[in-house]
Write a structure and sequence with these properties.
The chain has 360 residues and is of the alpha+beta class. The chain has helices at residues 50-58, 100-110, 115-128, 144-156, 174-191, 202-208, 226-231, 236-241, 334-337, and strands at 6-15, 24-34, 39-43, 65-70, 73-74, 85-88, 162-166, 194-199, 211-216, 219-224, 247-256, 260-264, 269-273, 283-288, 294-296, 302-311, 315-322, 325-332, 345-349, 357-359. It binds adenosine-5'-triphosphate.
């Protein structure tokens, strides 16, 4: 198998401080192979170890154990400035006393490049980030979005082997965040730059990434494309963390035959294709995204009563109570499908065969 461009091998980070009697294991046994040009996002709740992982790659934090390799070289003992990685921070970290041009040129000057080459590179990157002709402007006069574009240009112009992003958009308003993430993705693809991005915003992770690494308590829960993570979560944590208002339907494996598995979901028994990891008596959970449920007045798998209707224009969100279980159902294009009202009796339909089924 070809060697990975960036590889983390069993990386662990423990923190101890004089105020703490216990040590904090921020990252535990983290192993991942990343290809050149890939956009990887570390996603997870606050405190799960995303930033610490990023900082270990960038050289701002030592590893307690494990190794990090970049382009065939072990880098975890190298100083940050010798690693050929570059970090884009949430706070932009621009030099306030320098204009845009000077901020962007700084890293190239440190490298001792000829003036003419610096000028060409800076002008090219300013064009790419949409700040052409603004080089003389002081950074103090820029909007948040413009400052972040300068920070991006400053990082990209030195052509690092890996670009590291530490929640770079969290200081921007919601609209600008969406604009900037499209911008970052386009730029990254254009330049083919290997990127590791930290966020706790799942929508940001889904829209930017080739692969998402979902973390929980310092460990990797799952690695996969946005679609795999959403459609095939491998744990209840991932199923719950990704997506909104996910429904969980619990059951117990009642019978297993060569053809199918019978699962008791309370009021009835349902059948799914045989899965060889299951045994009789196992507790299982179906993961049902709100848009995977269809409502019908005539017939269906489960029967329920509409409890709440939220009309959102392009979609309607219903809460439907079915044998003590409250389901959230999202129906797009309500004008076409008609709208149910509170108190209506409905049937819920979903394709059991294609739902993620997680052993609890
Ligand atoms: P957030 O989304 O809130 O930034 P995160 O997923 O990036 O969180 P980290 O900042 O990597 O999480 O922190 C992981 C764990 O390590 C947390 O429990 C945190 O308190 C702890 N931690 C991080 N830095 C230090 C430090 N310098 N000293 C002690 N503990 C630390």
């Amino acid at each position: 198998m070809a060697q990975a461009y960036l590889e983390l091998k069993n990386v662990t980070k423990e923190f101890t401080s004089e105020f703490q009697t216990d040590k904090v294991v921020a990252v535990q046994d983290f192993s991942l192979k990343i290809d050149q040009g890939e956009f990887i996002t570390l996603l997870g709740p606050s405190g799960c170890g995303k930033t610490t992982t990023l900082r270990m790659i960038g050289g701002f934090e030592d590893v307690t154990s494990g190794e990090i390799y970049l382009d065939g070289v072990k880098i975890n003992d190298l100083l940050a400035n010798k690693r050929e990685t570059c970090m884009v921070f949430q706070s932009y970290a621009l030099f306030p006393h320098m204009n845009i041009y000077k901020n962007v040129a700084y890293g190239l000057e440190l490298k001792g490049l000829p003036k003419k080459e610096i000028q060409e590179k800076v002008e090219k990157i300013l064009r790419l980030v949409g700040l052409e002709g603004l080089g003389k402007r002081p950074t103090s006069q820029l909007s948040g979005g413009q400052q972040q574009r300068v920070a991006l240009a400053r990082a990209m112009v030195i052509e690092p082997k890996v670009l590291l992003f530490d929640e770079p958009l969290s200081n921007l308003d919601a609209k600008l965040r969406v604009k900037m993430r499209v911008f970052i993705r386009k730029l990254q693809q254009e330049l083919g730059m290997t990127s590791i991005y930290v966020t706790h915003d799942q929508e940001e992770a889904m829209s930017l990434s080739d692969r998402i690494v979902v973390m929980n308590h310092g460990r990797i829960e799952q690695v996969g494309s946005p679609m795999e993570i959403y459609a095939r979560p491998q744990s209840l944590f991932v199923a719950d963390f990704i997506g909104k208002q996910t429904n969980f339907l619990e059951g117990i494996v009642q019978e297993i035959s060569d053809q199918d598995v019978a699962i008791d979901i309370g009021k009835k028994v349902v059948f799914v294709k045989s899965i060889n990891t299951l045994s009789k008596g196992d507790q299982v959970t179906f993961v049902i995204r709100p848009e995977m449920i269809e409502l019908s007045q005539e017939q269906g798998l489960l029967e329920g009563i509409v409890q709440m209707v939220t009309y959102l224009g392009s979609e309607v969100v219903y809460e439907v109570l079915s044998s003590n279980h409250l389901f959230t159902v999202q129906v797009s294009n309500p004008l076409k499908h008609g709208i149910y009202h509170t108190g209506d009796q409905v049937f819920l339909n979903f394709d059991l065969e294609n739902l993620p089924l997680i052993k609890s």
